[in-house]
UniProtKB/TrEMBL annotation:
Pfam families: HTH_1, LysR_substrate. It comes from the Bacteria. Coiled coil: none annotated. This is HTH lysR-type domain-containing protein. GO terms for molecular function: DNA-binding transcription factor activity; transcription cis-regulatory region binding. It comes from Cellulomonas cellasea DSM 20118.
Length: 307
């Protein structure tokens, strides 16, 4: 089999993240025919059908979704390699702090935490070694694995379970909300939706391993229901939100991720009954082993901010 290029993997990940070839093309600044041709070349290289194409649009196949998850790991490893080589070339004296975070936390909370951390360090006239920061974005399961494997020193996750070998602390709280397009029948619904309504509705879900998916499944099970096994799975919150505007889809996502859409009325929150969709957002580090000074400072600052 021919060697797969990183550019091809970037196309596949962009489709998974954006939800379609056309959306991926816009996010990458390419034309749709260019992205389509690149995906077809990747399909020939791998010998797999990665995308289902129809007049209504394009979505990843089951093989495509699996390949996109592996592609993310390859791209992350490539980025880590380049950062490490750059450090060897002469960032001498600069500490390199790698932080991993699940998508919602990475987009809505980590930038503020890192900004405050940098300001605190720069305001110290007797500053120690400068620190360059790299942020890895994965689902909660991927974040925990990155910390366990030593790829990242500090992780932030949304899931309810923490893997053995990690210590954790709660740093924030969050709530999942049920959202639909303004034209969806539930947007005008007077009665709250129940676990049964969600289990029998047109849900679109995040992929296995995401904190949002884990929280939703546990809430549904606690209410005595179960989610069907054949529900669509999308690799990002952005893809879930995009799917809501395509038909009768229902999404369950973090309130942090849809605050702007709810404020502008482009999505509508649907009240729920009998569902506990609250969750704790956690900081995780390895149980054994010392943190670098830069990581210790970040952990201490986030801990203080969460009090």
């Amino acid at each position: 089999m021919a060697r797969t290029s990183l550019t091809s993997l970037e196309l596949l990940v962009a489709i998974d993240t954006s939800g379609s070839i056309s959306a991926a093309a816009r996010s990458l600044g390419h034309s749709q025919p260019t992205v389509s041709a690149g995906v077809r070349r990747l399909e020939r290289t791998l010998g797999l059908r990665l995308v289902d194409r129809s007049p209504r649009g394009s979505v990843l196949t089951e093989d495509g979704t699996a390949a996109a998850a592996w592609a993310r790991d390859v791209l992350t490893a490539s980025d880590a390699f380049e950062a490490s080589v750059s450090a060897l070339r002469g960032q001498g004296g600069t500490a390199h702090l790698v932080v991993a975070a699940s998508l919602t936390i990475a987009e809505h909370l980590v930038p503020g935490w890192l900004g405050a951390w940098r300001r605190r360090r720069s305001s110290d006239a007797t500053e120690r070694t400068p620190a360059a920061v790299e942020l890895i974005v994965r689902n909660s399961a991927g974040v925990m694995r990155a910390v366990l494997d030593g790829e990242a020193e500090v992780g932030f996750v949304e899931g309810t379970e923490v893997l053995r070998g990690l210590r954790m602390r709660t740093v924030a709280r969050d709530e999942l909300v049920v959202v639909v397009d303004p034209e969806h029948p539930w947007a005008r619904r007077r009665r709250p939706v129940t676990a049964r309504d969600l289990a029998t509705g047109s849900l679109v879900l995040r992929e296995k391993g995401s904190g949002s998916r884990d929280t939703l499944e546990r809430a549904i099970e606690a209410a005595g229901e179960a989610l069907p096994a054949d529900l669509p799975q999308l690799g990002s919150t952005a893809a879930v939100k995009a799917a809501l505007h395509e038909g009768d889809a229902v999404g369950v996502v973090s309130d942090l991720a849809v605050a702007a859409e709810l404020a502008h009325g482009t999505l509508v929150r649907v009240p729920t009954d009998g569902l506990d969709l609250g969750r704790r957002l956690r900081l995780v580090t390895r149980t054994h082993g010392d943190l670098s000074p830069a990581a210790r400072e970040l952990v201490a600052m986030v801990g203080q901010a969460s009090r």
